[in-house]
Design a protein that fits this description.
- The chain is an alpha+beta fold.
- The chain has a domain at 140-195: Nucleotide Exchange Factor Grpe, Chain A, domain 2 (Roll), CATH 2.30.22.
- It has two helices and six strands.
- A three-stranded antiparallel beta sheet has the order 1-4-5.
- Helix 1 (40-109) packs antiparallel against helix 2 (116-137).
- The longest helix has 70 residues, at 40-109.
Length: 195
């Protein structure tokens, strides 16, 4: 008759089901890690390979960061160019209508005081205001007033007149208004300047 070894069971040590089961006090075979013996040459070679891989990884990461920065710069440049192209198109169209706006402005400066001509002038003024509202809705701003100081970037002097009540460099009269879109000059103001 064969005898079986009886292991006392407690809550900490469960009873094995068969004779082949490993007791709980020994680690399971999967938990054991095999030890590998390397020579110093093999170890140095692995260290060298790991160092090269790390350097290559850093090189790729830095390259990726540069490409990402280049792409962000490219994206900003494309957006800026799109805004500039939109402004250029707006300026190109608006310049054609500024001639009509100038003609309406001159007509209103010589408007008749009474009679049928006054009603006609009111109609012209309504058209003028509608056109001006349309141009302003595109972001175009009118500039140039008497008393301002002459700025060669914004004004075009057609005459320089001495002996006026204005200081030297001040605008005496605006002959033709100037217009700008943001920082861009659509058309400089034509002015008479005090000498």
């Amino acid at each position: 008759m064969t005898r079986k070894k009886v292991i006392p069971t407690t809550p900490e040590t469960p009873q094995p089901d068969s004779e082949n089961q490993v007791p709980a006090s020994e680690p399971a075979p999967a938990e054991q890690k095999p030890m590998v013996a390397l020579s110093m040459e093999e170890y140095d070679e692995l260290q060298k390979t790991m160092s090269e891989a790390l350097n290559k990884s850093n090189e790729y990461f830095e390259g990726w960061q540069r490409e990402r920065a280049d792409f962000n710069n490219y994206k900003r440049r494309i957006e800026r160019d799109a805004v500039m192209n939109q402004q250029s198109a707006t300026i190109s169209v608006v310049r054609k209508y500024l001639v009509i706006l100038d003609d309406l402005d001159r007509a209103l400066k010589n408007r008749p005081a009474g009679g049928d001509g006054a009603a006609w002038a009111d109609g012209i003024e309504l058209i003028y205001r509608k056109l001006m509202t349309l141009i302003e809705s595109e972001g175009i701003q009118r500039f140039g007033e008497a008393g301002e100081y002459f700025d060669p970037n914004r004004h075009e002097a057609i005459t320089q007149e001495p002996g006026s009540s204005f200081e030297s460099g001040q605008i005496i009269e605006v002959v033709q208004s100037g217009y700008q879109l943001g920082d861009r000059i659509v058309r400089p103001a034509m002015v008479r300047v005090a000498a």
